[in-house]
Amino acid sequence: MPATSIHITALDGIVNVNSLFTLAVFIGLAWNPTDPNNSLIDQTQEPGCSPSPKVAENLITFHVYSFSCFLFSSLVAMGLKQAIRLSRRARAHYNHHILWAFDLAHVNETALRVGYVVSAVGSVCGSVFLMLALVNVAQIKLGKLGCGGSRHVYGAVVPLVILVPSGLLIYVCTVFYAFTR
């Protein structure tokens, strides 16, 4: 698998998408879920629909997990990108007989493929945790799932849990296809 600009562009794409998701995580962490004025639940019409403190704890936990996964994925992708650049420079120097010492910088094809998969797994896990955090945001803002007047929360959560896994499935299939080629 030759190191081309396509590989660099793909790794840049991973880092850029992870950066956007990381920004979403930070915005989510900055939001105070225990603020009583930050809920759309009308307690007079829907008593008992407020989520428990455990939902707020899960929200923060899933945000931290998501951030960790996106950061891990980005760091792996950036490391791969640097390895490819070093390898390309080493081959250029080696071919021109300028620097022989950089011949050790050749990127192992198997290591590069594994790195792509590891980075993709980090992005997928980060996306799943971010989706779970957003489910908790919906419960905090609109009422807990399973509550009598929870049609609004289901209206927010159902598209989320259908579209995000569908997109992730397409992403995983694409990564698997690229991995096997």
TrEMBL record:
Keywords: Membrane, Transmembrane, Transmembrane helix. The chain crosses the membrane at residues 12-31, 60-80, 114-134, 154-179. The keyword Transmembrane applies. The keyword Lyase does not apply. This is Maternal effect embryo arrest 60.
